[in-house]
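Milestone 3.1: sequence recovery, worked example.
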């Protein structure tokens, strides 16, 4: 499944195509550490905030959560809403940290 990205593939997509990373976890989880420059839009708010995401409809969007489950269903919802380049960070933050990728605690 091409829409499931490893941490390395996700990083490459950000570097090459300026992909947007959206963290769909809850505020407390996001605050404990997230991918640098990831935007925080909790899964439950995706519908309500779809207007601000409109501009990314044809832009690569990578969704991430703790383990890859919530972001996967969020991704399916975005695809239904007409987003054309939706990717899921496979294994979520768990895989990301296991791969030794950087984690930020800054607010975005």
């Amino acid at each position: 499944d091409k829409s499931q990205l490893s941490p390395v593939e996700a990083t490459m997509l950000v570097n090459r195509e300026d992909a947007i990373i959206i963290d769909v976890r809850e505020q407390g989880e996001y605050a404990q550490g997230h991918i640098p420059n990831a935007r925080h839009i909790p899964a439950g708010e995706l519908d309500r905030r779809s207007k601000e995401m409109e501009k990314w409809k044809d832009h690569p969007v990578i969704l991430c959560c703790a383990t890859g489950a919530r972001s996967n269903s969020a991704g399916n919802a975005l695809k239904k809403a007409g987003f054309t380049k939706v990717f899921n960070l496979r294994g979520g933050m768990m895989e990301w940290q296991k791969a030794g990728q950087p984690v930020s605690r800054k607010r975005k």
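The two ends are 30 Å apart (CA to CA). The helical segments are 7-17, 27-31, 50-53, 69-80, 92-98.
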